Amino acid sequence: DFRGQITLDGPSGTGKSSVARAAATRLGAAYLDTGAMYRAATVAVLDAGADPEDAAAVATVVAAARIEVGTAADTEVVRVDGVDVAVRIRGAEVTRAVSAVSAVPAVRRRLVDQQRALVAAADAVVVEGRDIGTVVLPDATLKIYLTAAPEARAQRRAAQLGISDPAEVAALAVDLRRRDQYDSSRADSPLRPAADAVIVDSTELDREGVVDRVVELARSAV
Ligand code: C5P
């Protein structure tokens, strides 16, 4: 059986979450969605009426919020101060504000501490995010950076949301690009592959193909 830590980083729309969940299930590993934690922090900011661009206000709200996420690959548990926000964190309002909230260093420090504690409790775990291989778990057993061509990512996200109107798909592509640019250019923990990450390009692969590749890499890493 696989024991250790697998990091899965990359931009949005690469199919990262479904790949991470499926790989964790096949490897009998726990699963941690760190994006869900930044999204939950964003719910706390919005509910407090704070401006997501006001770093000091964001830091104050997030320091006081209790953020809980589950680590089972087959169920999604996300709570803010005891309230279930699993559905709300996927909404457009949260998606629009999350990059600004996650660029605040105090927010990152707090959530990274929590991520490391959750990971330490598991013998085997798949952790997905943007900075897991570079910052959160620099000594992970296996690091994967998942990429895909921008058009493929927009198409995939559109299919996920049930959108087919070309104008809406184009708007989605613009939003993906905006979020990736924000995430890649922020000063604290920007999105980039770790020096020792295996780059997996999912443009030409279906989900099963990517999961097979991850599981294969995991089995040969131990
Ligand atoms: O993966 P997901 O799209 O849910 O992530 C939402 C946002 O959370 C990202 O666009 C990024 O701004 C932030 N994030 C981050 N670091 C992580 C995971 C997510 O900054 N490890």
TrEMBL record:
Record-listed ATP binding positions: G10, P11, S12, G13, T14, G15, K16, S17, S18
- Segments carrying the region annotation (Disordered) are 1-17
Q: Listed GO molecular functions?
A: ATP binding; CMP kinase activity; dCMP kinase activity
Cellular compartments annotated: Cytoplasm
One GO BP annotation of this record: pyrimidine nucleotide metabolic process
The record ties this protein, via InterPro entries, to: Cytidylate_kin, Cytidylate_kinase_dom, P-loop_NTPase
Which key words are in the record? ATP-binding, Cytoplasm, Kinase, Nucleotide-binding, Transferase
Matching Pfam families:
Cytidylate_kin
Q: Name one GO cellular component term.
A: cytosol
According to its UniProt record, the EC number is: 2.7.4.25
Q: Which family does it belong to?
A: Belongs to the cytidylate kinase family. Type 1 subfamily.
UniProt protein name: Cytidylate kinase
State the species of origin: Geodermatophilus ruber
